Amino acid sequence: MRPDLLNDLFRPISVLQGVGPKIELTLSKLLLGQEASGPATLIDLMLHMPSGLVDRRRQPGIAQAPHNSIVTLKVRIDRHQPTPRHLPRVPYKVSAHDETGEITLVFFHAKQSWLERSLPVGETRYVSSRVEWFNGAPQMVHPDHMVTEEEFHALPLIEPVYPLTKGISGKVLGKAIRAALESVPDFPEWQDQAWLQRNGALSFAAALAHLHRPEDANDLDPGSAAWKRLAYDEYLASQLALGLVRQTMRVTRGKIRRFEGHIKNKILAALPFSLTGSQSETIQEIEADLASDRKMIRLVQGDVGSGKTMVALMAMAAVVESGSQAALMAPTELLARQHMRSLEPLCEAAGLSVAVLTGREKGSARTRILNQLEKGELDILIGTHAVFQSDVAFRDLGLAVVDEQHRFGVHQRLALSNKGQDSDLLVMTATPIPRTLVLTYFGDMDVSKLMEKPAGRLPIETRTVSLDRVEEVMHRVARAVAEGAKIYWVCPLVEESELIDLTSAEDRFAALQPLLGDQVGLVHGRMKAQQKDEEMRRFQTGDIRVLVSTTVIEVGVDVPDATIMVIEHAERFGLAQLHQLRGRVGRGSASSTCLLLYKTPLGEVSQARLSVMRETEDGFRIAEEDLKLRGEGDVLGIRQSGMPGFRMALAEFHGELMEAARDDARLILMKDPSLESERGKALRMLLYLFRRDETIRLLHSG
Ligand code: ADP
Ligand code: MG
Questions:
Q1: How many structural domains compose the chain?
Q2: What is the spatial distance between Cα 39 and Cα 14, in angstroms, rounded to a whole number?
Q3: Ligand 1 touching residue 301 (CB < 6 A)
Q4: Which of 176, 237, 421, 497 is deepest in the core (most CB within 10 A)?
Q5: Distance CA 579, CA 563 (A)
Q6: What does pTM read for this prediction?
Q7: Whose CA is nearest to atom 15 of ligand 1?
Q8: Is the CB of 309 under 6 A from ligand 1?
Q9: What is the atom index within ligand 1 of the atom nearest the CA of 310?
């Protein structure tokens, strides 16, 4: 139950004067995103941060008002010159003066009656706006404010400017926000007193007031005390939410998994290679987790090609040996099937039964798998999200592995914790995530890193080539094929439209056919999964040598003897994506090349990205650069995932607060695991304010 103190702030914005149904809808989309499910509330307005300010304090007098600057003038109204009836394009003009000179106020398509009321001849008014000088005469077009002396004293002279959307004016939004500000109650303080003293001693309400009623530009600096307090509030809310999930998931499972490594040894014997040092270390860490009586929640970070799949298999092997089942979840059907293909022979060698379950398994095939699963005849289930559907019941799910999944929010974690009461959790991400972001989105999961690549890998030579030379590149590709090479050719996403995207891949496919005949294949997102698999398989076996594709191959596809990656319109891809794509080659013992074809002229950011790609293959460095170039939302693909984003906290300014917030959250939950103390109750409000409250129900269920 939401504390009553919050009721006012959680009213829909339509309770505000001047916010009707239409504005409510538009504003809700601005504040909550396009997919906003309900109307925005007053707290959502409060958390909409200004992007700058207008300073109206300057009152230089008409003659001294600098061209193109914002000033406030106290003037006497002299004369109205309405728009002539037969010349509707001529503006309505109002002349006014002060002791220094004269000014013209200019209005287009204005209502005469309204202007006569706002600017009565012979009276004094304050007008505030940008002044422009034309031919030695100053004018103001549609002044932002035209008010009486009395109204002027009520006017904020420093006005915050907000990010807007079509259909909402700054005036309407500013007014709504100032009105909402009145509804912010005095909350009991949830921050630690010592921390507050060190950081400006502003309450939540005072901090909001500072940002929405700034007194000078410093107030709107992300480093200001007010902004920092709110950023810290937000980080603390998110860390508490993660901590609460973790607390419920991390309960003692009371069961110590016992295994000696028989299955692992069988797999090792069947492997054509030995494990890397990183792989062995990570597997040891996982085995230690499994052998303890606490639930495992571990994140394995490993660059593309670092061999995460093997780590997953060894973890699953240990759990199966201890008598339970394991599930491996991939983000796409293609990847699920690829995992099946590569793991099936190893499972067979080790005596493990394994099946794949995706949306494609239907009818009796699906029923058979579900039966086997329930009876415990299946040791390992590989699949997509289908694995977590409600009718999928395991006899005893001991471990869930989530692969290539950085879009794994609190929601999904809750779903997972419902499925396997006692099951351990391993999350594997291919995008190396910078440390602050790990904390932000995964909280204090245990983290293993696969820093080392399998031995014998050669560096990938990366070259940038202008698209003007694409004919030449196609001929080089044909020559390389004649010499036995296997080549990926990736075509770009054009304006995020699948259709145009598809055309570009199809066009390239058609252009390559005369050179390569039936040695060239095509995969794209519109193909049926079965067709895609078939084409991938033909590429794997070498029936086709050049695979033209859209970005469907981006994540995780493994064809070790592919040695050339061509990326067309590389300037349209993000760094992380380029890195992922390039990682498809350089997986075998032969040296590999990546050709980045770009269209000129290159923008600054694209140019920076391409040089980073040329300079380094280090995924962690690339992720850091990516963060700089794109901002955190895109790095993690959060925008698409519906994960609660951050509204106050900006990683580039407030990132260092995150670690403190994590420690704080940990300490709080250690002392007060169900948030019952005075401070705990205040913290519950914090969770509501930043919409992290879904985790509060965990407090009651336990
Ligand atoms: P990713 O971490 O990107 O998921 P994969 O698990 O797909 O990487 O592994 C990439 C390739 O490296 C696969 O072909 C896999 O068989 C191979 N591989 C994994 N571990 C090793 C190793 N220790 N030595 C050599 N090759 C390995
Ligand atoms: Mg993988």
A1: 4
A2: 8
A3: no
A4: 237
A5: 15
A6: 0.65
A7: 307
A8: yes
A9: 6
Supply the range of the domain harboring residue 359.
293-450
pLDDT of residue 38: 80
For position 309, what pLDDT does the model report?
Answer: 94
Query: Where a domain ends, among 122, 155, 188?
Result: 155
What ligand is nearest to the CA atom of residue 306? 1
Q: Separation of 584 CA from ligand 2 center, angstroms?
A: 10
Q: How far apart are CA 44 and CA 41, in angstroms?
A: 5
Average pLDDT over residues 686-693: 88
Residue 9 has pLDDT above 50, yes or no: yes
Residues 342 and 437 in one domain: yes
Residue minimizing CA distance to atom 9 of ligand 1: 307
> Are residues 505 and 591 part of one domain?
yes
Residue identifier of the C-alpha nearest atom 17 of ligand 1: 307
Report, as an integer, the average pLDDT of 122-129. 95
Please identify every residue whose CB atom is under 5 Å from ligand 2, which is an ion. 556
Q: Is residue 638 a part of any domain in this protein?
A: no
Does 108 sit in the ligand 1 pocket, CB within 6 Å?
no
454 lines ligand 1 (CB under 6 A): yes
- pLDDT, tens digit, 9 for 90 and up, residues 269-320: 999 999 999 999 999 999 999 999 888 888 898 887 889 999 999 999 999 9
Does one domain contain both 304 and 435? yes
Atom of ligand 1 nearest to the CA of 404: 4
Q: Which residues touch 311 (CB under 8 Å, ≥6 apart)?
A: 279, 282, 283, 286, 300, 302, 428, 450
Query: Averaged over 564-587, what is the pLDDT?
Result: 89
Q: Domain with 130 in it: what CATH number?
A: 2.40.50.140
495 and 587 assigned to the same domain? yes
For residues 309 and 432, state if they share a domain: yes
**Residue located via tokens 């039936």:** 518
Helix, strand or coil, per DSSP, at residue 362: coil
Residue 276 Cβ contacting ligand 1 at under 6 Å:
yes
The protein residue whose alpha carbon is closest to atom 20 in ligand 1 is 307
Question: Is 279's C-beta closer than 6 angstroms to any atom of ligand 1?
Answer: yes
Share of the chain above pLDDT 70, in %: 89
Same domain? 200 vs 110: no
pLDDT at 496 over 70: no
CA distance linking residue 95 with residue 119, whole number of Å: 10
pLDDT band at residue 489, thresholds of 50, 70 and 90? Answer: very high
Counting ligands in written order, the one closest to the CA of 404 is: 2
Alpha carbon separation from 169 to 59, 163, 200 (Å, rounded): 25, 10, 33
446 and 467 housed in the same domain: no
User: Residues 128-175: pLDDT tens digits?
Assistant: 999 999 989 999 999 989 999 998 988 878 888 888 888 888 888 988
- Strands 145-147, 124-134: pairing kind: antiparallel
Q: Whose CA is nearest to atom 22 of ligand 1?
A: 454
Report d(CA 538, CA 518) in Å as an integer: 11
Domain identity same for 301 and 442 = yes
Whether 308 is in the pocket of ligand 1, judged by its Cβ within 6 Å, is yes
Separation between Cα atoms, residue 270 and residue 281, nearest integer Å? 20
Instruction: Calculate how far, in angstroms, residue 143's C-alpha sits from the geometric centre of ligand 1.
Output: 66
